[in-house]
Amino acid sequence: MPDIIQAIDHSDRVERLFAPYRDIIGDDYPAYRGHVYRVITYAMHFLGGDEEARPLVETALVYHDIGLWTENELAYLEPSEEHALADNEKYCWGLDPRLLRDAIHWHHKVFPYRGPNQAIVEAIRKGDWIDATDGKIRKGLTRVQVKAVEDAIPNYGFGGVLQRLAGDLGGNKLSGNFRVLRHVFKW
User: Fold this and answer.
1) Chain segment 139-168, per-residue pLDDT in tens
2) Is the pLDDT score of 1 beyond 70?
3) Which partner for 123 in 43, 57, 66, 168 could form a disulfide, CB atoms 3.0-4.6 Å apart?
């Protein structure tokens, strides 16, 4: 894995995928968009820049947390998967439905993913952990690499957005975070 990490801060595909959801995401859009691009950057780095994997990676990551906003639900994995799979079929993207579902379903897995399409699912999982922990967990990347991505793609308070949603959707932050742990994290 090369030392230099190439920040991916724009993709026509990502912007097209976000378009129908931008108003639903509302004021949280800049924070979620930045999160998506940072995780795409990490995942593509772990995949060695594999351009064949990029459409799936980008699509999965636009949708991976979307159920937080579309359903206003902290148990958001299944709704996020359903939106991705329905749009994949509706718009004839031709993405492997199982891989798309797995990439979303397992992105909060605590331990490494072992199974079909392991390289892509694991790259997304590791990338999400890096960004969700603000680089405290780095999954083999250096502090310099994570800082380069964070400097290139603004955060816009994504962690605060997640905590606000936990409180708003869960009654309070404690019960909301507990609900996320029970329904979103996988072992």
Assistant:
1) 999 999 999 999 999 999 999 999 999 999
2) no
3) 43
Q: Which domain holds residue 22?
A: 12-183
| C-alpha to C-alpha distance for 131 and 145, rounded to whole angstroms | 12
CB neighbours (10 Å) of residue 168?
13
Strand ranges in the chain using DSSP code E only, listed in sequence order:
none
Q: Can you give the pTM of this predicted structure?
A: 0.94
Q: Please, are residues 31 and 175 in contact by the beta-carbon 8 Å criterion?
A: no
Does residue 5 belong to any structural domain of this protein? no
Residue 22 located in a structural domain:
yes
Q: How far apart are CA 38 and CA 55, in angstroms?
A: 15
Show the tokens assigned to 79. 């709704």
Distance separating alpha carbons of residues 120 and 39, to the nearest angstrom: 12
2 in a structural domain: no
Quote the number of domains for the chain: 1
Burial bucket for residue 173 (CB in 10 Å: 0-12, 13-18, 19+): middle
What is the Cα–Cα distance from 37 to 58, expressed in whole angstroms? 8
Span 97-107, pLDDT tens digits: 999 999 999 99
